[in-house]
């Protein structure tokens, strides 16, 4: 059952959904405030649709001078709409879809609601819609969706009366689950961010969020995608679509709703999606090059930067302003956000020095002082000196205060200067007064950031995407299990520790030499054979927590002690778990002192399949939850990157005079484990190695404890 | 030298500075764009000053029909202005101050710049100003300051042409260092936050930020203070002023500039203040009940909540909206911010159920669905049901989208409802389109939050201030050393470990029994006497890191091993540090296994005096910097609170089946240490106990290592 991993994920071309040549409107109307009328007006009055339009309404002969047809079936022979927009009440939708599919319509957009979001019967109807459509080679978008807003072509296949208000064109596409928040992003256009198109996937009877992300990843005029996600329906499809975008250099800003307990509860009552495990989702997003944000305004911030430029590898940020306090604050907040301020080249400092007064600050941040008000030409020379510095990748302009026309005038000057440099110039508009300067920046598409904090976050994310592109975009695909969970298992089998270690050992993981003692005498002999202190552990089916039942003895020094320990362990476990068949006691030499205890785990996420978990074990794990996660496969290089991202990374590298630990051997172990799991298809349910002993550099690693659960079919 | 701790900090009454009966303007002018003219116009045209105004300008007989006097001295006998505003160039300022002090002026406001911020000579002039003023019983505000903006009385003792633009009255006062960012806060009035007054302390030749904070703490119509801080000049004064405000129930929102390395550098080049140590500052702010924020917009957010209500102890937050997606997002972000959503009482749920459709969500968050658009009266009943719920302390209203008049109409309804409930109703305006609804809320003073994230942060801080008031406001004053650093020490003396432990032992701290071995033989005898494994450590003046020079041997099991260890230690240290006089080897019984290693430290902060540092020692300390800090004195109760705030708190309490550690004994140790330090006045330079061994509950604590430095006078 391995073939599913490798089958490519296929996506239909959605170009004709976004730019149809011919549209049928099923449910066209001129009744005030009806969906049918609003959709018709968006097509004929508020937008620029120039193709064929066929109205369907069995009760009317014409609407506004346009002929109406009683049904899709009744359309003249030879008429084959690319898109049918369906706005009729729920009961008639399935029949309309049947007729559309039969007529050869390519896409049905079902704006009507009252399906899966209301009842199980509605959900079943959605499945029927999909089947009917697919039978005729048609795709369905919706139901319960707001339709398509193609802003670049001023085309609205939507009933929304707000369509006409949010038409600022640009290079960022929006793909959402949830209509209101999608519209919120469109209103972000008032701050300067322009959009290519918006689709919100509704109930996802057929087309999913992933299909829209994939579509946008193929549009040459799209530089980035903003996504609002409640839950991923098909992890494999989602990952394939995301990688198509990010590997192609298109950033994805994503806000996941349902990350906290409250949000999960609220989202669950609001939609039918699985919200997923927040930590797993975040790890997957990072691995796919997706930029996860914390709020809707941060989506606009990130999109606005993507629209300005792809991060170019010059990570130095310059701060340029005329208020010392604001410059200091912004430098402070950028620093706290982990953004690096550029160190100017000597030539840059010279250019600044030649045009600024002696009391100005020319080191980054540049505080020009108020001289720029009396002699604005100073801005031209000094701003360009900064933007052209070889280490500067982006210039921020803090505006602490709105001074009406005065600010407007400097804003116009910066807009003009932006046309003369490829380095993005990003204003930070810190005032609550949105005056002329703000409007000048917004209209020029120089989307002001609304706080230093937001600017810091957005710039850090933008730079991080640049680094992902440089370092990670060429990585092999993660293992994408079909539909995440694979076939249903007949049962789950927990291996005993020795069984598990045999499996791991055969896969190349270093496990300690072991003997099984069926009697106290055998235990004594085994201890003698090892000639060193041993660990002794009960072997019994279904005993997960061996310590809790008195089943473990550590540091047993000699043969006599081993015999005594054997008796003690057997007696304790018999008392604590009389139900369990005891298979003996496992003896292994103790790991040398001076190693680290590390947790290495494999689990199956319901959406994204096999995930590796990696982190310091013991108390540290429970106190600080300092673990890294990644979808399989994980090789040694990726293991090293995951370790480097932990807060405990300095410990692995060596600190306080310690030379560090054997992360190379740990990398080999993780790679072997990953290969083992991948090679067994859906055969592994869970593996937890806790702890893995990681010795000092060169001393290797050892699996000290292993819990393995297999899926049986 | 102990008396300085107890001397009260005195503050002059600044009421007449903010509301003078009589003003002299030294440097009055009618020259276009001059400071003198702009200040005069703010007094006579743009503001409401109704008292006596005396113009001083030796070159003019009158300005705009008002008589001019050549100097303060030349004013008619009997004229005694409460405030003199000085706007003349730097050279004449000191003489003007002399004349003002002689005439009995109460306050001189020096708006002129060119003093300490430019040169050492300017700094010296400031000292002279202060001396001259104090000699005549006068106080100086400035120089290089923007003056006083008394918004409630529409009074501007300022040259700022923006004075007339930012006059939204309210109950929040602003005290800043740095003019531009102060004006930024005033422009926050456009979002609905109203202000009582603003002072920005300029070069602080005399009056400091603390004096203004103290003044605002005594104004009955002030409910909170927003402060922008670059550096604290006098920690004792700052703390006294802050406590006057916070203990009186007035929250202080504070933004510290210069927290990151970049910010410190930028702030240092911008002002003369000491930026201070960021971690110490933050700990002190928390102890004083000050709410530290991360950006200027967060100051406005916090101030706006303070203006609405003092937190009442009902910590439950309700979310009420008509978009399911926005409700879920806001619940999510509030949850992530650590804010608790209220669990409604059955009666509340009943009231909601009776008025909302069956498909609405009535559990918190409340998603009314769009029914509120067709039947707005539903809002009245259901919003009030939520606001009156006994667990609800605040209601947030997410607005994801601006729908122009429609949104304006619901906003007006909420404004009306706010007049009928004491529970603050706080809109979150998530859209970049600031339409009618936004303006309605702003004009009503219902200051919309600009993102769910900001709302979450502000509400968490507002609730935390409520808890501080309930739990901490009655704590004894922190130990406030006069001017922080006290008298200059002649020298600093490092005690040897046994000397230090004797000092600590006499103060009641548990130190292990110890013997000093001057020979290998003595070491052997000592080990025998203890009858248990011992720790052996070199005793040598000026050896700080004993391990680094081979000066430590642990777990020495018997007499023979002790003799050998003695020889080894002496030889190693002689080689490594031939410069040091060796005083022998210290022997102590090893602490029992199974304890925690904890760091307890005392240091002297240059601004705030003695600080305690407390946290898990060892690797954990270096990896996670998980320490708590507080100004002395710290008693056992406060020690327990500090421990409870650590990320490692669960470890102290007991986890993974462990019963926890002896935090009571640790509390007694910390209290004894605090008492020792306080009793010695300025006598301690530093104490570092690393580690203190903390045994299991009931097993006590022991100072295992001690580094003590004394100040000698």
Features of the shown structure:
homodimer; 713 residues; alpha/beta; Rossmann fold; 5 domains
Explain this structure to me?
The structure is a homodimer of 713-residue chains. Chain A has 25 helices and 29 strands. Chain A is an alpha/beta fold and 713 residues long. In chain A, the strands form 5 sheets. Chain A has a 7-stranded mixed sheet, sandwiched between helices. In chain A, strand 12, helix 8 and strand 13 form a beta-alpha-beta unit. In chain A, helix 4 runs parallel beside helix 5, helix 7 packs parallel to helix 8 and helix 11 crosses helix 18. The longest helix of chain A has 20 residues. The N and C termini of chain A lie close together (10 Å). The interface between A and B is large, with 79 and 79 residues.
Indicate the topology.
2 copies of one chain form a homodimer.
Chain A: H1 3-6, H2 15-18, E1 22-26, H3 35-46, E2 52-56, E3 62-63, E4 66-69, E5 83-86, H4 93-103, E6 107-110, H5 120-135, E7 139-141, E8 148-150, E9 155-157, E10 169-176, H6 179-187, E11 195-200, H7 209-217, E12 224-229, H8 235-247, E13 251-256, H9 261-270, H10 278-287, E14 290-293, H11 296-308, E15 316-321, H12 324-336, H13 346-355, E16 366-367, H14 371-374, H15 377-387, E17 392-399, H16 404-418, E18 425-429, H17 436-443, H18 452-471, E19 491-494, H19 497-506, E20 515-517, H20 520-530, E21 534-540, E22 552-556, H21 559-576, E23 582-589, E24 596-605, E25 609-616, H22 618-624, E26 627-631, H23 636-644, H24 649-653, H25 663-679, E27 684-694, E28 701-703, E29 706-712
Parallel strand pairs in A: 1-2, 1-5, 2-4, 5-6, 6-7, 10-11, 10-12, 12-13, 13-14, 15-16, 15-17, 17-18
Antiparallel strand pairs in A: 3-4, 8-9, 8-11, 19-29, 20-23, 21-22, 21-23, 24-25, 24-27, 25-26, 27-28, 27-29
Helix pairs in contact in A: 4-5, 7-8, 11-18, 12-18, 13-15, 16-17, 20-21, 23-25
